[in-house]
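Data card: per-record layout.
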Amino acid sequence: CRPISKFCKLIGIKSCPYFDIKRASRNDIISHFEKHSVEYKIAKMFEIYHDNFTTLRDHKRPFKWTPFIFSIGTTDTSPLFLFTGNMHIPMDHVSFACVQLWAAEQTKREDVMELNFWSKLTSLHIGWNIHAYSVQEAPFMLKDIPIKIPLQCVDNLFSGVQDEFGITAAIRSSGASSTRTRMRTVVRSPIVPMFVVGLPLPERKREVTSVDEQEGQGHMGTVLVILFVAFFIWLFQKR
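The structure for this 239-residue chain is written out next.
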């Protein structure tokens, strides 16, 4: 039988025929991972949602987060990045990694991804930087991702009310232009494509009654009672 692709196995794809990612072209890489249902988007912005964190905590064994591929440019020479991660409940940590799958430049790049956990309910956030590993570094870096975020830190974002959180990211590139590509969740422009991973929770409609409304409802109830009693008194007198 054909050997299993070691790289695909590292990111949680168990059954994959041999694929030499180091020698593959940009289009071949995209096509290969799309066969594994790994999403690919050309986007300078993306949101990552995981809206059921408490159920993820129920896993007894470590598992891989769903990977996805993105390009920060719109040309055929734009570098390809893969975002993946692990969740290790027994060791009480979560970790993420970024791998540069392909680049047109022959020289070594030093891309850094800046990540931030955020929560709609609190002003707290957790931020850190991770080096975008090369394909050559991936086999030993993805086995045990160096940066580990304690799950307790993530729990503090939720305040025990709602287990919804997301991740924002930015790539700081060492390319010739030394530009910094922002990937944020604030701007929602139809001109700029946005990559949404996972499903955000629907906006919850909060039933809030102000103090004035409550007092008004109380006064109305009192008036109705008085009118009701007066009606029966009038009816009794008529008899």
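Known properties of this structure: The longest helix spans residues 211-238. Confidence is low (pLDDT under 50) at residues 175-218.

See the next section for split statistics.
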